[in-house]
TrEMBL record, chains A, B:
Residues 316-412 form the D-serine dehydratase-like domain. The keyword Lyase applies. This is Alanine racemase. It holds the Pfam family D-ser_dehydrat. InterPro entries: Ala_racemase_N, D-amino_acid_metab_enzyme, D-ser_dehydrat-like_dom, D-ser_dehydrat-like_sf, PLP-binding_barrel. Belongs to the DSD1 family.
């Protein structure tokens, strides 16, 4: 296993098993009643979203925005001495992972064993499972995969003796490499104190079939910049303690992983370019939502709002829906529901209206509520929508947008469909 | 087209195109890293959920509960002189639709054109699209399908002149048969007054390529039994007006459709067995969530709570998740998130704990919050969970449970996996 330095970024060969998709009646948002059309042939036709084989609502991804975001974040990580392991759970789209790896990402982060399996089928070499893993079936399967492919690098978290024991029991010929997770009071998983984490690291280092690769944590649940800064310093201090205690295996870099999509500026400041007294560190940033960004939750929270000189992200996801009914003054009902767009961290945001090929800004329209397949649009006086109009919505929270579709049309700036993005949830 | 009487229930031939599934790495909850196993072969192995090729979390459907619910609702509809067009959007599982049709359902209800297409691929003959449909691409496709298959019966809603015009423009050789939707103030789609509905029915009856088949409405957004009763009487009255005005086409029965899963007792009382002065009626009940029922939203709202002598529904969906961490007293974190279970109409409900093959009731455990892949379990003092424990959760709101998975293991009462349910979202 070549763990590599911060910037080595040996890209995986993301391909096998996840290509060869066919657009057919199974794909929501497409209207393909026939035998189906291969993804590449479909994309080559460059259908217009507005008169091609589509049916409303359609969730689309803007190609230029995706590419811009991937390049922006890769440059940010490089600039700050961070390795990037983008959280792949956001999109679960191997084609995007490939672009992230091609742009220099160290590997791909996931949240579950099933997602790690998708990574392997997609040819991702380095997988960080940013979660505890105690499932014997998955652990044994991943141990076999480690033995099968010497190039497969796999990291996951432990925060309990039970986690270390589960890993030790399932290990194969190559040891499991674990990160000891440091949490915080009121947080999610992770040891609550450094002392507990050091004790656990010693137990892991002593367990057959298990090696300690470093530390990890998640700052996303903390209330503000001061708490995030203090927490990341604790995490860095814990890694130094691990180094001093000699619990980290081998001579490679000590992994120090953090970073959602709300505080990567502080992660860069506190973990960028660090090392430990003669031993290299691998600061691994796990941000994932940046790939599509959004028009709600992350629009407000992205660190680029604090550091505009370093770049900006573009919202890449749009949902186009049709007005089905304008049943009373001030109310329109669109064909857009909980099956089509996220609603857990803010509702979709009306952006544009389109009628007979003419578009205008969706001023005076607010989405107030969704059922499974309907959205309620409150209309300010003077806002005329009629049945048949199209409304383009931005979304809030990419993770619960991507998972609504198996196939997402990728559009250029003229809304020609130039690719089909396959997701694996 | 044979519209059929209330109880004729000619079942569709639900088959083509939706069988031949393969369990592989794409299927979340399964652990199949190899080349994949055909659904039938997989089911024939009767794996135990607890030591078979599964990885947590797993959403399962209980076979006996599904069968019980399908039989219970079929009997209810028959007993009350209602034809049943179960809302297929709840499960989007053609294998369940087939059972519903085999049990006597008149046809399948859907909410979108894409879902109507899945019905056709599944061989469903009678499809009620309980929604306005203004999408030219889908309308033209469905017109072609009507011309291709004389046995295909298709109904959808109109509530505006624009809807009638869109249908008329797209119609093929066989006319579109529409239901004029009656809504109510503060509700969703549908004409707000009977006068408006009659005007629209006359326009539809006069439009080339369009026929009026009857009326439809949705009582699910009304606050209580009195309002539901009054609304259903209005709906019945509207159908009588249509009859008197002679706007309904042909000599077949006049369709009067209503019914979600919260008020079908009142629908039965107000619409069961009705007719209009020498002309037959087809009262079509569209309840869908009953197929799996739930442990939350519908557990509280099912009409069977008011009429226990007529039967009861059983919750058919369970999610099994593993405790990943017990990081501080009173808190456990399970590997169960917004990608795995519904959270829009109540959170998952802990029901049982399983450790080393022994199960007990999940007393003193409450799920308080979910992230994308984590659930926060608040533990009462004395409730000991340890990492590795399994927790079985009931869910609230079937529609946002089924749509989280493409393949759902169907279990018997010993939690042997006896079938694989495929969903098409």
């Amino acid at each position: 296993m070549t763990e590599g330095g911060v910037t080595s970024g040996v890209a995986g060969d993301v391909s096998g098993g996840v290509t060869g998709g066919v657009v057919d009646w199974r794909d929501t948002g497409f209207w393909e009643p026939g035998e189906g059309v291969g993804d590449e042939e479909f994309a080559a036709a460059e259908h217009s979203l507005f008169d091609g084989p589509f049916t409303w609502p359609v969730l689309v991804a803007r190609r230029d925005a995706l590419e811009h975001n991937i390049a922006t974040m890769a440059a940010f990580a490089r600039r700050h001495g961070l390795a990037l392991a983008p959280h792949g759970k956001a999109s679960m789209a191997p084609a995007l992972w490939r672009r992230q790896l091609d742009a220099g990402a160290w590997g791909i982060t996931v949240a579950t064993a099933n997602q790690a399996l998708v990574c392997r089928k997609a040819g991702v070499r380095r997988v960080l499972l940013a979660n505890e893993l105690l499932d014997g079936t998955a652990l044994r399967g991943l141990a076999r995969e480690l033995d099968r492919d010497p190039a497969f690098a796999f990291l996951f978290y432990v925060d309990s003796a039970a986690g270390v024991e589960a890993a030790s029991r399932a290990a194969g010929g190559r040891p499991f490499r674990v990160l000891v997770e440091l949490g915080h009071a009121g947080g999610r998983t992770g040891c609550r104190t450094a002392a507990e984490a050091v004790r656990l690291a010693r137990a892991a280092a002593a367990a057959p079939g298990v090696e300690v690769a470093g530390v990890a944590g998640y700052e996303g649940g903390l209330p503000g910049a001061d708490e995030v800064t203090a927490y990341l310093r604790d995490l860095r201090g814990l890694a130094a303690e691990f180094h001093a205690a000699g619990v980290c295996a081998g001579g490679g870099p000590i992994v120090v992983s953090a970073g959602g999509s709300a505080w990567f500026d502080i992660v860069a400041r506190e973990l960028g370019g660090i090392g430990f007294d003669g031993r290299e560190a691998l600061p691994l940033l796990r941000s994932g939502a940046y790939v599509s960004h959004d028009d709600g939750f992350y629009r407000v929270r992205t660190p680029f709002n604090r550091i505009p000189g370093e770049g900006r992200l573009e919202p890449a996801l749009e949902v186009w829906a049709q007005v089905l009914s304008v049943p009373e003054p001030g109310l329109a009902i669109a064909g857009l529901g909980k099956r089509d767009a996220p609603y857990d961290e803010g509702l979709p945001v009306p952006r544009r209206v389109r009628r007979d090929g003419v578009e205008w800004t969706a001023e005076g329209i607010a989405l107030t509520r969704m059922n499974d397949h309907h959205a309620y649009l409150a209309l300010m006086p003077g806002t005329a929508l009629v049945p048949g109009d199209l409304v383009c919505f931005g979304v809030s929270h990419p993770c619960t947008a991507f998972d609504k579709r198996r196939a997402i049309p990728v559009v250029d700036e003229d809304h020609r469909v130039v690719d089909v993005l396959r997701t694996f949830f």
